[in-house]
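Researcher: Next entry: ATP-dependent endonuclease (Streptomyces flavalbus).
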Amino acid sequence: MDMIKVSASAAQSTVIVATHSLNLIDGVDIQDIVHLNSRDGRAYVQSLGAEDTDEDTRRFLSNMAVSLGFRNSVLLHERCFVGVEGPTEYAALPALFKLAFGYPIQSAGIALWDCGGNDGALNFAKFLKKHKRTVVFLVDGDSIRDKEKEFSLNRLEKYGFAEKDCLFLGDPNELEDVFSDDQWADTMNAEWPRKDEQQWTPKDVADLRSSGKFSKSLHSLLYQHSEQAPRKKESMVVELTRRLRKPSDVPPALVKSFEDAIKVAREAGLAYWPEES
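Model: Predicted structure:
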């Protein structure tokens, strides 16, 4: 694969590789894969574009895996599984990753799983760790405070987790609080305007950070003052994410978590599973 990449990098040079080899497929960015299929006696091309969503990417991988004879895409690119708390992270993190790094999260070999809470993310990771798979969990930072018994590093080490396998997100407590006051105020004015027609200000957001759970306080504030307030607080981050445009818009705390997961995925390899003694 390195030789092919060198050949393709030469001036006025193009290399096309026709293969069913998973080793070769796994060696290139999924955005560089062109899947040829046939319909009614004609060949047609499937590939990913720069504007494709995470759902488009997962559909492409799944359909290609089916065409290759596999039931799902678990054999394609998934070097590191990441258990996340719920649908908010599952929906928002792929878009934020692509904005930050310029390529899909699947290209880094990372597969996200919605685990239904921090306990679910930990149990998912424990199961895969037991079966010798490369896995980390990414949960809100307040998990350490609220569930100290389960998420203390000493306890996690007993299950085989190294510190790099345990990703805690927040500034300092949860996903919602890593975004700036300005980002939240901009989203609130655009998506959930006030009933009194006043503008939301960054100070309105900043005042919520000093006490209680930030996401809950923010959702309550919106419900009190906006007729368009989201029914569930879980949708707030997704709406904010859609308004971000530049890599620098992605909060540094989130970029750091992504970089930690990328490092684990890059170092992933076959794990020796010793025989029972």
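Model: Note for the record: The domain at 80-170+247-267 is CATH 3.40.50 (Rossmann fold).
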